[in-house]
Specification:
- With about 110 residues, the protein is α+β, with helices and mostly antiparallel strands.
- It has 3 helices and 5 strands; from the N terminus they run αααβββββ.
- Strands 1-2-5-4-3 form a 5-stranded antiparallel sheet, with helices on one face.
- The longest helix is centred in the N-terminal third of the chain and has 14 residues.
- It is globular and about 30 Å long.
Length: about 110
């Protein structure tokens, strides 16, 4: 008898939604934090939506006690929230004035 289970839908990745953002963040991390494995993790981050102008790469409310500031010409471009293990980016704040072309999706 053949099973009729529907395949589970894969969650969207940030790279699927905003590949330009992923490329830029990865390049800036590699330049400012050489050898840090967090740069290699950016392309695989899940996309959990936009909430209060933050691009969520973890569920809303995930602890993020560390912040990485990525700058270009001494001006902040991105702020990255990092989890307590200092190995997972949980949110991205684009602070250089560009608009995120994605609608807000948080439930708060």
């Amino acid at each position: 008898m053949e099973s009729r289970h529907s395949p589970e839908k894969s969650p969207l990745r940030l790279a699927d939604v905003r590949p330009d953002l992923v490329d830029e963040i990865t390049a800036m991390l590699r330049e400012s934090h050489p050898g840090d494995p967090i740069a290699d993790s950016i392309s695989g981050l899940p996309f959990h939506g936009i909430c209060r102008n933050y691009v969520l790469t973890a569920p809303e409310g995930t602890p993020s006690p560390w912040v990485i500031v990525l700058e270009r010409e001494q001006e902040a471009v991105f702020l990255l929230g990092v989890d307590p293990s200092r190995s997972v980016v949980t949110w991205v704040d684009v602070v250089d004035g560009r608009d995120a072309p994605i609608a807000e999706t948080c439930q708060s």
